[in-house]
TrEMBL record:
Pfam name, any one: Ion_trans
CDD domains hit by this protein: CBD_TRPV5_C
Alphabetized Gene3D superfamilies for the sequence: Ankyrin repeat-containing domain
Subcellular location: Membrane
Keywords: ANK repeat, Membrane, Metal-binding, Phosphoprotein, Repeat, Transmembrane, Transmembrane helix
The protein, known as: TRPV5 protein
GO molecular function: calcium channel activity; metal ion binding
Cellular component, GO annotation: plasma membrane
Topology of the protein relative to the lipid bilayer: Multi-pass membrane protein
Organism: Sapayoa aenigma
Entry's transmembrane regions: 134-158, 192-210, 231-251, 257-275, 296-318, 359-381
Source organism superkingdom: Eukaryota
Length: 509
């Protein structure tokens, strides 16, 4: 019951009352230091009161709990060294990491905890010492891997076509080699080494991604932008396309260009994932994700309806015409593709001035130009501009959350020998087996003294203003005269009562 009450207090809107009641309940806890302490008992979701405060974005309760856990080591003048308990914060030995819970929650208030002590210092320590070097090395390794795969695709086994053309529009010159013909020369053996590296990399990607999907859940793993959800979809699809290409090569099945081309596009697009390691490029990846999976997905439904309708109209109009004079609409699939290009203004309206075009083509194309080029494209630009404005106001916050998510990901993937635990064990200071982070803080007494003077003078000015406002309400008929006298009165009072205090404050500063 006591643990349930603690969880309820974390969710209370009155944070000051919740903190006092939290302390009152813990004062009756008989197992304050043991594993059966009320603060260490999780709820049905596996969250302790401390983790629940982080997930809910309750910064007041989080700071209150951290103040209870800190240990003052020594103090010398303005310098103070404090040990902060990071046992539940550090993701090194936690199955359900506190940092991962913060970046995966949908509440923006939770990300503000990343700027609080000691979370900010812990993340900075992990990222600067281990996260950034490993992440840059991983980015370089992935780019070299993609270069290897691209070269294997460029020099894939092809041979000249031997059969005759079946149509005047048939433009095929080379065809795919059979498996027995693909690995004969020395150049084929070099390509085979690159293909083996590509397949091994695809298998490693699947081995690393599948356990996280099973641990977190597909909806949460692919749906969180900060965790890199869209990029996880891209890299898993890329690995599957590589394996499909391998199977088609081994079985001598024609058409391997389809999964190979998909794999090239997806693999190189995944390079944008490594932009999150840089503060200048990280927020732009979030903007791209939000625009693609937010604005563009909604816009594609409208675009599909418009293209389908006008492409059908164009095909019907040119169905009776000679396709050699204007071949952009010679069949229905080509009409859809041509209309798509017209929609994005990639090409101009097809026209052949040597022949007479149908009159309805001009009418339909006029309506299409008004709807597509003027209305819908400007609507898409406005939607993307609104998304850019919203993300730009929180880009620094989102980038820090990206850094935390990347740090936790690397810490889980890398071996323990390459990523030692951060902090200091409490046994060195006689504090048990819990881990602490030492932070040095400098307290400037003059600064706090000046702040107290400033607050005192502000209160005095507010009192003087209150007295002046009471005098202004005496006679409503002469309101203009009273406003002028109030202005002169406020100047006189500010120069007499609080003017001396402000002069003292300026001289001390």
């Amino acid at each position: 019951i006591g643990n349930t009450v603690l969880h309820i207090l974390v969710l209370q809107p009155n944070k000051t009352f919740a903190c006092h009641m939290y302390s009152l309940i813990l004062s009756y806890d008989r197992n304050k230091e043991g594993p059966a302490s009320l603060e260490l008992i999780p709820n049905n979701e596996g969250l302790t009161p401390f983790k629940l405060a982080g997930v809910e974005g309750n910064t007041v309760m989080f700071q209150y709990l951290m103040q209870k856990r800190k240990q003052s080591l020594w103090s010398f003048g303005p310098l103070t060294t404090v040990l902060y308990d990071i046992t539940e914060i550090d993701s090194w030995a936690e199955d359900q990491s506190f940092l991962e819970l913060i970046v995966s929650t949908k509440k923006r208030e939770a990300r503000q905890i990343l700027d609080l002590t000691p979370v900010k210092e812990l993340v900075s320590l992990k990222w600067n010492m281990y996260g950034r070097p490993y992440f840059c090395f991983l980015a370089l390794f992935y780019i070299l891997y993609m270069v290897c795969f691209t070269m294997c695709c460029v020099y894939r086994p092809l041979k000249p076509r031997t059969g005759n053309r079946t149509s005047s529009r048939d433009n095929t010159v080379y065809v795919q080699k059979m498996l027995q013909e693909s690995y004969v020369a020395y150049e084929d053996e070099l390509r085979l080494v690159g293909e083996l590296i590509t397949v091994i990399g695809a298998v490693v990607i699947l081995i690393l991604e599948i356990p996280d999907i099973l641990r977190v859940g597909a909806a949460k793993y692919f749906g969180q932008t900060i965790l890199g959800g869209p990029f996880h979809i891209i890299v898993i699809t890329y690995a599957c396309m590589i394996l499909v290409t391998m199977v088609m090569r081994l079985t001598s099945t024609t058409g391997e260009v389809v999964p190979m081309s998909f794999a090239l596009v997806l693999g190189w697009c995944n390079v944008m994932y490594f932009a999150r390691g840089f503060q200048m490029l990280g927020p732009f990846t979030i903007m791209i994700q939000k625009m693609i999976f937010g604005d563009l997905m909604r816009f594609c439904w409208l675009m599909a309806v418009v293209i389908l309708g006008f492409a059908s109209a164009f095909y019907i109009i040119f169905q009776t015409e000679n396709p050699e004079n204007l071949g952009q609409f010679y069949n229905y699939p080509m009409s859809l593709f041509t209309t798509f290009e017209l929609f994005l203004t990639i090409i101009d309206g097809p026209a052949n001035y040597d022949v007479d075009l149908p009159f309805m083509y001009s009418v339909v194309y006029f309506a299409f130009a008004i709807i597509a080029a003027l209305l819908m494209l400007n609507l898409l630009i406005a939607m993307m501009g609104d998304t850019h404005w919203r993300v730009a106001h929180e880009q620094d916050e989102l980038w820090r959350a990206q850094v935390v998510a990347t740090t936790v990901m690397l810490e889980r993937k890398l071996p323990r020998c390459l990523w030692p635990r951060s902090g200091i064990c409490g046994r060195e200071y006689g504090l048990g087996d819990r881990w602490y982070l030492r932070i040095e803080d400098r307290v400037d007494p003059n600064k706090h003294k000046m702040m107290r003077y400033t607050e005192a003078f502000k209160v005095q000015d507010r009192d003087n203003y209150g007295k002046d406002s009471e005098k202004l309400e005496i006679n409503r008929d002469t309101l203009c005269k009273k406003e002028l006298s109030a202005l002169s009165l406020s100047r006189n009072t500010s120069r007499t009562s609080s003017h001396r205090g402000w002069e003292i404050l300026r001289r001390n500063t």
